[in-house]
């Protein structure tokens, strides 16, 4: 248990905006040096890992988690050295004002200070100067700017350039009754689960794919599935939990503490019905907490995988997570660990189908 939470913490603190995932990819490669597996990086940046188990499965199985996260990219620098940003992935305007972000040099050779990270703050018009109807309006990201303490455009360009990516800055911490908070738990949680499995002895041969560019359209997953050509895919993810004050009934979608979330359908996929039933049966037989989503919403890498290479039968196992795509995603430890157990047991069941 200590190992898997160390993975989760380390991965959460890394920066890997969609299209700029090198930090996480390098971490995974290093973590797997002792895992006795075959590792390949494809042209898009997906990390495809194959590990032999004790037995050869009847079906080729691919487990999948994405290494990218939502973030920002520099799209302009004004004469005063303030930086305009564009969101990379789905970020609500409501979570950005006043946030600390970290820029990563787009090209270390371009940067005058050697390509190390730079801190910035997302700012805008002070609340004291907001009057009339403006008080009721949420400022849009396009109306805000990043402040890195530069004095001019020329000064700012010593540290960032057009195309430089940036991520939220957030501590990883445990709090309350076994809750954990950190940035990018979507989907470093799935990555931690797969690393833990890869460093364990497997019953069957399996493919594990650490995908890129999920947050901007599940682009890497389709490419990886075309290469692997699995019969079945199990996506390991987080999913939105709205079990918060003021939200009741089915609008909560799922709840922290109620176990792994297995959707029957979302905006990108109608999941394989036999796998859906098998997942619940496997959970019940092993006393693993499990729930489904009470809203058809969201999506994940399955949206690309299930319609690739002649079709792939897919299912998703997700840990419920509050405040997705913000600096502070929140999960509960038991849901995380339960998803780890269920992922392995379900994969072995699928191998025997």
CATH architecture of the largest domain: 3-Layer(aba) Sandwich
Residues in helices, as a percent range: 10-25%
How many helical elements? 8
State the secondary-structure class: alpha+beta
In percent terms, what proportion of residues is strand?
15-25%
Instruction: Tell me the major beta sheet.
Output: 6 strands, mixed
Specify Rg, calculated over alpha carbons: 21 Å
**Helix and strand pattern:** HHEEEEEEEEHEEEHEHEEHEHEEH
- Fold-level CATH name of the largest domain: Aminopeptidase
Distance between the termini: 30 Å
**CATH homologous superfamily heading of the largest domain:** Zn peptidases
Overall average residue pLDDT: 93
Biggest sheet, spatial arrangement of strands: 1-2-12-3-13-16
Overall outline: globular
Tell me the number of strands. Answer: 17
Indicate how many domains the architecture comprises.
Answer: 2
CATH class of the largest domain: Alpha Beta
């Amino acid at each position: 248990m200590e190992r898997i939470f160390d993975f989760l913490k380390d991965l959460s603190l890394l920066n890997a905006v969609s299209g700029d995932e090198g930090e996480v990819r390098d971490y995974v490669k290093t973590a797997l040096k002792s895992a006795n597996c075959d590792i390949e990086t494809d042209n898009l940046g997906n990390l495809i890992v194959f590990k032999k188990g004790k037995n050869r499965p009847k079906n080729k199985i691919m487990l999948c988690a994405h290494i990218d996260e939502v973030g920002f990219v520099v799209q302009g620098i004004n004469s005063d050295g303030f930086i305009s940003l564009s969101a990379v992935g789905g970020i609500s305007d409501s979570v950005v004002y006043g946030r600390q972000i970290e820029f990563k040099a787009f090209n270390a050779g371009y940067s005058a200070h050697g390509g190390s990270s730079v801190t910035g703050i997302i700012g805008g018009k002070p609340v004291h100067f907001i009057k009339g109807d403006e008080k009721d309006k949420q400022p849009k990201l396009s109306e805000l700017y990043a402040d890195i303490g530069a004095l001019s455009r020329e000064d700012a360009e010593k540290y960032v350039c057009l195309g430089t990516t940036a991520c939220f800055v957030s501590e990883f911490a445990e709090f309350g009754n076994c809750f954990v908070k950190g940035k990018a738990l979507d989907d470093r949680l799935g990555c931690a689960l797969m690393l833990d499995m890869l460093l364990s002895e497997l019953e069957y041969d399996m493919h594990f794919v650490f995908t890129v560019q999920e947050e901007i359209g599940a682009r890497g997953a389709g490419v990886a599935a075309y290469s692997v050509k699995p019969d079945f895919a199990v996506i390991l993810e987080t999913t939105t939990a709205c079990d918060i004050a003021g939200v009741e009934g089915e609008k909560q979608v799922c709840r922290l503490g109620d176990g792994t979330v297995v959707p029957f359908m979302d905006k990108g996929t109608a999941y394989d019905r036999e796998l859906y039933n098998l997942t619940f049966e496997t959970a019940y037989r092993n006393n693993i907490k499990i729930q489904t989503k009470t809203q058809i919403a969201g999506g994940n890498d399955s949206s690309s995988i299930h319609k690739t290479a002649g079709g792939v039968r897919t299912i998703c196992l997700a840990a419920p997570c509050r405040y997705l795509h913000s600096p502070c995603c929140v999960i509960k430890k038991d849901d995380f660990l339960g998803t780890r157990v269920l992922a392995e047991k379900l994969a072995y069941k699928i191998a025997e189908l």
